[in-house]
Amino acid sequence: MTYPSDLFVAxxxxxxxxxxxxxxxxxxxxxxxxxxxxxxxxxxxxSGLDGLAEDLIAHGADKAYVxxxxxxxxxxxxxxxxxxxxxxxxxxxxxxxxxxxxFGADLAPRLAFRLGTVVATGCNRASVEGxxxxxxxxxxGGKAEEVVSFLTSPAVFTVKPKCFSPSPTxxxxxxxxxxxxxxxxxxxxxxxxREARREVGDGDRxxxxxxxxxxxxxxxxxxxxxxxxxxxDLLGGAVGASRVACDLGWCPPSWQIGLSGKTIAPxxxxxxxxxxxxxxMAGCGNAKTIIAINTDPHAPIFRYARxxxxxxxxxxxxxxxxxxxxxxx
Length: 329
Hints:
The protein is α/β, with parallel strands linked by helices.
């Protein structure tokens, strides 16, 4: 038997639809199973999941497991784990793939513990070599990479967004839908979520925006992000930030791009007042075109940028905004 033979994808649902990263995970699974011809199992939990199983099959899953119950509407580890463990126990996959998001960062280690295995988080490449699954992930703050493999089964790992291509959509693709009842007695759960608040802003659009205007310490304060917002509005993009800008409270944490933030791959990326440290580039290095604005001509960001402007962003951005507005009149 060629390894791996079966793979399991844990599905994250956002606003009633699978997260964009789920489709990338299905594409990764399809690539890993290219030689073995194994089965891709996808499992979705929640409430009001009509049409999601068909969508998962159209995007590459061979079997879609649906557990639909009102108490599963919002992710909560102690509610979701019993059902996921039960399904994985029946399927017995060689590996379990989870998205590297706040959802996955919470779920994957708990899942690995329940399954008696280990977990590798934040992987950006995966391959099968010599009958073993090899996973590549950044380490030492993005300055190096490590390749890991597993001695236990199933392998549980999380993958970063924008590192794998989604599998092509086929609406008439064949597959099996399995609807299951939850194994959980809700009364046995000892914790209750009293309230959930979702921060609304450009951070929600960062992963899908084709243009991103990102600012760092060189913004010198919140005003720099006001200018970035104006520029983003003109270009139809989203606003992002480096960790230092978020830590200083100049912008919401959901805007953070980098090793400990979001991973994006826009067509156009403005790095404004961002030095270009490895931790940040780990989140935006896949951008097609990078434009850097920095007062330091020796800043590392210029090594990655296709175009660079040496200057103060508070002088450059207003001039850029003015020129764009003039061309649109």
